[in-house]
Amino acid sequence: MHDILLFAPHLLLTLGILLCFVLGTLFRRPVGLYGVTLAATLLAGSFGLAVYPASGPVLPALKPFLATGMLTAYFLPLICALGIGVLLFFGAELKREGRKHDDELYALFLTALLGGIILAGGRNWLAFFLGLELLSLPLYILIGLRKDSGGTEASVKYFVMGATASGVLLFGIGLVYAGSGSLDIAHSLHAPEGGGTVLIGLGMILVGVAFKLSLAPFHLWAPDVYHGAPASVAALLTSMVKAAVGGGLLRIVLALGPELWPATVPVLWGLAALTMLAANLAALAQTSLKRMLGFSSAAHMGYLLMGVLCVNQAGPGPVMFYAAALAVMDLAAFGGLSLLDDGPEPVDTLASLRGLGRTRPWAAGLLAAGLAALSGLPPTAGFTGKLLLFRATIMGGYNWLGVIGILGAALSVYYYLRPLVALYLREGDAPTAPERLSIGGGVAVFLVLLALLGLGVAPSPILQLIP
């Protein structure tokens, strides 16, 4: 019974996947798919809150697979909560396009969610890779949801580059296993024997993870993919996916032994500095809002990596808090864009945003709140999260990296303010239809705004859960 409870979130999501496919097989236009998906996600997150942290699985076959400590207890409910937020926007977009009865799309969404919780809670390298692939494969299809040239190009580009990164990562796992003789993440990164082989393998693993997190120089796919994907799928990529991969990276870094840590620090330092500078400079030149948010998401991964560098001095708390805050901020930005982009003309350029702050106040307000939080303005989650990260960077002794981060954050204020000016201080060229939010869209706006402001004004409840 203990093992069943531990794997209840995974089993519930699997059951949801099967139900979606069965309903799609039995009925030509199945109803209730959205409800099944929402219920499976909500129940999985609830079981994660109730069961974890806990002692490990009892059965020997399951014991090496799942970590049941504080990291899993934090990231599993977080990933499910982000999944619910994305689903509220995703369902509305499918309904607008007349595809709310497509069972495979809901099943793919749940499969990605299942991969996310396996990745963030995996104890060994097999679970890590299985979770990463279950997370990635559905995205190749969901990105091409719209049958146009932009969606197809984005899907193919993400597939080709993602498959290459997965191959590099898998080869790295093989080298770590060859050098340490263990598939357990913690044990393999502490083994002194075969240190050179393990170090090379770890470097290849970091390359694969850097692609998924869009760290420079592996970030150039992000603006193209986000531009071609539907806004709700881009919200999935920037929120739930990056939270899950960030949780996996944090588990790897916390497991690093003293033999490997000195060689890893320069790599992480260089990735963080290059990402913050390159992504922020590239975002300045963008005229497409989705492309700008793609580079912005990459830049924020550089800020997150500053906290990862300082886990030994400041603990994992700043990284865990910022992972949640950043996911909510990106969810607000892309979710607001999804609600605005419901007409015949796409809403993506600064010109298309003009005047929408007055004619579409709720959707535009969500987008504006997300942009303000990403720029680090108080009293949003972005301000509190950046404050914790820069404090951790100073505690870790990486002062120059902190200076680079502050310069990057200052640069970002300019490109975040341009859409806000267009929304509220410019007149639109053509009349727009009045705002009509669906029930799901209204609930999503309320919940995301509440999380965005709540994490900024009252972060203590979350910080108390973090070791």
TrEMBL record:
Reactions mediated catalytically: a quinone + NADH + 5 H(+)(in) = a quinol + NAD(+) + 4 H(+)(out)
Entry membrane topology: Multi-pass membrane protein
Main location, first listed in the record: membrane
Compartment annotation: Cell membrane; Endomembrane system; Membrane
NADH:quinone oxidoreductase/Mrp antiporter transmembrane domain segment(s): 124-411
Pfam families, A to Z: Proton_antipo_M
Keywords, sorted A to Z: Cell membrane, Membrane, NAD, Quinone, Translocase, Transmembrane, Transmembrane helix, Transport, Ubiquinone
InterPro entries: NADH-Q_OxRdtase_suN/2, ND/Mrp_TM
Superkingdom of origin: Bacteria
Residue ranges of the TM segments: 6-26, 33-54, 74-92, 104-121, 127-146, 158-178, 198-221, 233-254, 266-285, 292-314, 320-340, 361-378, 398-417, 437-458
Keyword NAD tagged: yes
EC number: 7.1.1.-
Function: NDH-1 shuttles electrons from NADH, via FMN and iron-sulfur (Fe-S) centers, to quinones in the respiratory chain. The immediate electron acceptor for the enzyme in this species is believed to be ubiquinone. Couples the redox reaction to proton translocation (for every two electrons transferred, four hydrogen ions are translocated across the cytoplasmic membrane), and thus conserves the redox energy in a proton gradient.
PANTHER family the record matches: NADH DEHYDROGENASE
Family according to the record: Belongs to the complex I subunit 2 family.
Subunit note: NDH-1 is composed of 14 different subunits. Subunits NuoA, H, J, K, L, M, N constitute the membrane sector of the complex.
Protein name according to UniProt: NADH-quinone oxidoreductase subunit N
